[in-house]
Amino acid sequence: MAYCTNCDKWFATWIGLKEHYVQSPFHHYCQHCNEHFSEREILEDHYERHHHRCKDCNQFFRNELGLHEHHRQSPRHSHLYCVPCRKLFQSTNNLNNHRRSAIHQPKSTICPGRGCGLGFVSTSALALHLESGTCSSGATRSTVNKFVQQYDRNNVITDPARMIGGSFQNEVVTFYATDASWNGRHYECYLCSNGYSSLRGLNQHLASPRHQAKIYICPSSDCTMRFTTLSGFCQHVESERCGLLQSSSQARAIVGGLVSQVRTITM
């Protein structure tokens, strides 16, 4: 006979008592170590530190290789698992973003800016580099927008409603805040009411594309997304969420030609 002191119950065998420990919500028990814990959180921490466990399936493995093979072969996990990195992701989109990152992709998109030559993993990363103003060529978000306007003459990815007389109706507007933005608790953005602990943080927010016009549009008939920056639009295209590059040869030509033509920004 085996006895559970906490529940005041007898069991015919030790195996029966062990099953009770495992299944009862009143016990926080590791059957692999035959050890009790006072709280569920402590047991979970024990699992993380001392065992190779799949949380989703609640399965345990003798070593890391066993868990790796489980993630690699299981229909529940294989489509979310990066085999080389041995990392499980929460969604297919997260896995695809990981695979498109510098971890797996070469930095083969070279910045054509004068005196730069830095490499990037994608067109969107190059566009973000130019928009940020950190390129040695002196390119900025404003010069990138003007370049795209000149290049996209048929308004495939730009909104003609934002243009008057051949130029963007809304240029990149520079906002800034002063000490007057302090409201007694934080520095408040006068455009969206978000609060920041420092004036510098607020001005960084105002210098971002957050409050700029959404001049870029996805031309896919099944998509209505708009973007304030070229880099944001390119990230959307590269994610393949709407299949734009497969469905529109015109859009494919525009996006494909951006890198080769972007040299004109800095000439």
Key attributes of the depicted protein:
metal-binding, 267 residues, zinc, Znf_C2H2_type, zinc-finger, alpha+beta, 16 strands
Q: Can you offer a commentary on this structure?
A:
With 267 residues, the protein is α+β, with helices and mostly antiparallel strands. It has 3 domains: 2-99, no CATH class; 109-173 and 212-266, no CATH class; 174-209, no CATH class. It is built from 10 helices and 16 strands. The protein has helices at 14-23, 40-50, 64-73, 92-99, 123-131, 141-151, 199-207, 230-239, 244-247, 249-261; strands spanning 2-4, 9-11, 28-30, 35-37, 52-54, 59-61, 81-82, 87-88, 109-110, 119-120, 163-164, 167-168, 187-188, 195-196, 216-217, 226-227. The strands form 8 sheets. Strands 1-2 form a two-stranded antiparallel sheet. The protein has a two-stranded antiparallel ribbon with strand order 3-4. A two-stranded antiparallel sheet has the order 5-6. The protein is elongated.
Give a quick summary of the entry.
This protein is of the alpha+beta class.
Let me know the number of strands.
Answer: 16
Total domain count: 3
Secondary structure tally, helices: 10
Helix-strand sequence: EEHEEHEEHEEHEEHHEEEEHEEHHH
Pfam families: zf-C2H2_jaz (PF12171)
GO molecular function: zinc ion binding
Keywords: Metal-binding, Repeat, Zinc, Zinc-finger
Domain C2H2-type: 28-50, 52-78, 80-109
